[in-house]
Structures are given as structure tokens and as C-alpha cells.
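Long-time lurker. I teach an intro course on protein structure, and each term I like to show students one example going from raw sequence to a predicted 3D structure in C-alpha cell notation. This year I'd like something fresh instead of my usual example. Would anyone be willing to generate the C-alpha cells for the chain below so I can use it in lecture? Attribution to the forum is fine with me.
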Amino acid sequence: MNARLETLPLRHVLTLPTMGSAVRIARETTEQILAEWGINRRHPTVNPALLILSELVTNSVQHAAALSPNVTVIYAAGQDTFVFAVHDRHPYQPRLFSAVTGTGASGLGTVMELTLGLGGTAVIRGDADGKGKSIWITLPL
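-- Reply from a regular --
Happy to contribute to a lecture. Here you go:
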């Protein structure tokens, strides 16, 4: 799905300190935003999206906090698309697709399996200064 962010009418940005409570707050905020946007909590994409988001924010908290005091979640949606990104200021960019073929359980592997299983996409976009990145998830609704 190639949803262009600028064409999606619904948007929200959440910035939190990179600490353990960020995971819960990001998840609760996502639930609230989806409800406000009229996306039913029982839609088959919602629970996997919440898990994907939780895993990505957890990764930022666990691996980026030393260099990134904040984690930012960017949300956008349209009639048939839900997009979100988790941004931190750590330069490391994991290889998303090797997480699917890797051995052992990993949060990023779960993210990729759920995303691809829903027919979604995942990409990493580095910051212009090379000192941070965003992991963008696009899911069909």
C-alpha cells in the first residue's frame, strides 16, 4: 500500500520521554486517537497495530534512551489506511526484513510478521543529519 502521508486527512503527533511509561501512554493514546477517528476498536487491524506500536516504542526505550531523550509517535489515517511512525534520535537503523528471517524471537521480528501478515509495509527513514530515524508502518483498514 503506497499511502502518501500528505494525502491522509487525519493526523496526530505524540512526544514522550524515552522511559518505560512511554509504551503504555503511546498505546493508550493510539486507542483514543483511533476511537476519535471512528476506527472501531474491533477492527481486525487495531490489535496488531497496537502490538506493533508497543514493540517499536519498547525498542526505542530499551535501545535509544541513552542518545534520545524523547520518542515521538506520528499518526495519520484515511478512509482505508492507518500509518504511524516511531521516531528516536539514535542513529542505528535495524534491518527490518532480516528480522523476519532471523532465528529466535525478537520484537522487530514480531513487528515485521504482523505488518506483512496484514498486507502492510514497513520502512526506516533516517533523519537528514544521520543521528536519528523513524520506522514507518502502513496498514490497510
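Some talking points for your students: DSSP finds four helices and five strands in the chain. The chain has a mean pLDDT of 91.
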